[in-house]
């Protein structure tokens, strides 16, 4: 996986995956969407995350889900 938008560093947020160059957990994006907030709300609340980075994460998750489903 191309990790240009993902950072995992034990010194940042205890190694939880974050958007590169921020302290924003990737999990926060999914929590927002799961809680019925929009991508726009997420981007407004976390201005250090670019739209491209958020869309990259969503696309990567979709691709992984579809690949896993196809392999079962």
Q: What is the 3D form?
A: globular
Largest sheet: 2 strands, antiparallel
- Parts with pLDDT < 50 across at least 5 consecutive residues: none
Mean pLDDT: 94
Number of strands: 2
List the helices and strands and how they pair.
Blueprint: E1 6-7, E2 18-19, H1 26-34, H2 39-45, H3 51-70
Antiparallel strand pairs: 1-2
Considering the chains and any ligands shown, give keywords for the structure:
72 residues, mainly alpha, 50% helix
Describe this structure in words.
This protein is mainly alpha-helical. The chain has helices at residues 26-34, 39-45, 51-70, and strands at residues 6-7, 18-19. Strands 1-2 form a two-stranded antiparallel ribbon.
């Amino acid at each position: 996986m191309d990790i240009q938008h993902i950072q995992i560093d034990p010194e940042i947020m205890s190694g939880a995956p974050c958007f590169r160059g921020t302290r924003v957990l990737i999990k926060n994006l999914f929590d927002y969407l799961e809680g019925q907030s929009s991508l726009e709300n997420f981007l407004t609340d976390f201005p250090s995350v670019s739209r491209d980075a958020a869309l990259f994460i969503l696309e990567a998750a979709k691709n992984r889900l579809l690949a896993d489903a196809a392999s079962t």
